């Protein structure tokens, strides 16, 4: 084996070792988190320990300041009055909203707040037939006649408009026939299956600002 071949083997071996170290660090970091309940985390017994807590987001408890999201979670299968404050810095999935299941990994600080380094949200998918739903054009064509009146509307999510709750309009609904658009307000959880271009059926009403205030968002099906 010549010197050139030896150098190549050393370099390749070094790269493999670095990759393995990174993988072990990531896996080890995740596995070291102890799974506890909302009630257990709220006691302060796990202060400064890496824990993983799952709970549902308390309605309208979330707020965003800069890139920092804060919200409260509760255990839907336990004492719903017991809540835990969570702080997360980073990008938030568009599924985030009221009552979404939030899996939070991090450490509880001296202030009793869970400073999450990881946040995963889950929301079950809902499906609804669009047979009795209006198109976006039909709905807007009624003007003030339908303001604050319950109605269903169907359309597709405009590319690039889907956001998490608390970041303004949740998304824009587009009429696939003529491209007419309708801004949608919605603060509850959205299924992770909802993406750019998804066909949706919304339940709610038009408001005085010309936007659709949705109470339910379902995939068409």
Helical amount: 10-25%
Low-pLDDT ranges: 19-30
The helix count comes to 3
CATH superfamily of the largest domain: Nucleic acid-binding proteins
Series of H and E elements = HEHEEEEEEEEHEEEEE
Strand tally is 14
InterPro entries: CcmE, CcmE-like_sf, NA-bd_OB-fold
GO molecular function: heme binding
Protein name: Cytochrome c maturation protein CcmE
Keywords: Cytochrome c-type biogenesis, Heme, Iron, Membrane, Metal-binding
Describe this structure in words.
The chain has 2 domains: 32-120, OB fold (Dihydrolipoamide Acetyltransferase, E2P); 128-217, Nucleic acid-binding proteins (OB fold (Dihydrolipoamide Acetyltransferase, E2P), Beta Barrel), CATH 2.40.50. The chain is an alpha/beta fold and 221 residues long. It has helices at 3-31, 38-42, 136-141, and strands spanning 34-36, 50-57, 63-65, 68-74, 83-89, 101-108, 114-122, 127-128, 134-135, 151-157, 171-174, 181-185, 199-206, 212-220. This is Cytochrome c maturation protein CcmE.
């Amino acid at each position: 084996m010549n010197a050139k071949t030896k150098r190549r083997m050393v370099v390749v071996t070094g790269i493999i070792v670095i990759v393995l170290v990174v993988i072990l660090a990531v896996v080890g970091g995740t596995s070291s988190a102890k799974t506890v309940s909302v009630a257990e985390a709220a006691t302060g017994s796990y202060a400064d320990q890496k824990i993983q807590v799952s709970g549902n987001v308390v309605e309208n408890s979330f707020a965003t300041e800069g890139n920092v999201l804060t919200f409260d979670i509760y255990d839907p299968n336990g004492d719903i009055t017991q809540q835990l404050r969570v702080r997360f810095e980073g990008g938030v999935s568009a599924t985030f909203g009221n009552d979404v299941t939030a899996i939070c990994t991090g450490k509880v600080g001296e202030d009793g707040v869970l400073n999450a380094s990881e946040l995963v949200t889950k929301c079950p998918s809902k499906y609804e037939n669009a047979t009795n739903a209006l198109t976006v054009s039909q709905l807007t064509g009624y003007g003030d006649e339908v303001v604050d009146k319950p109605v269903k509307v169907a359309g597709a999510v405009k590319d690039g408009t889907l956001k998490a709750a608390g970041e303004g309009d949740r998304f824009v609904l587009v009429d696939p026939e003529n491209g007419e658009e309708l801004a949608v307000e919605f603060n509850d959880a959205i299924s992770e299956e909802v993406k750019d271009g998804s066909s949706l059926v919304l339940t709610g009403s038009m408001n005085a600002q010309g936007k659709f205030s949705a109470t339910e968002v379902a995939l068409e099906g």
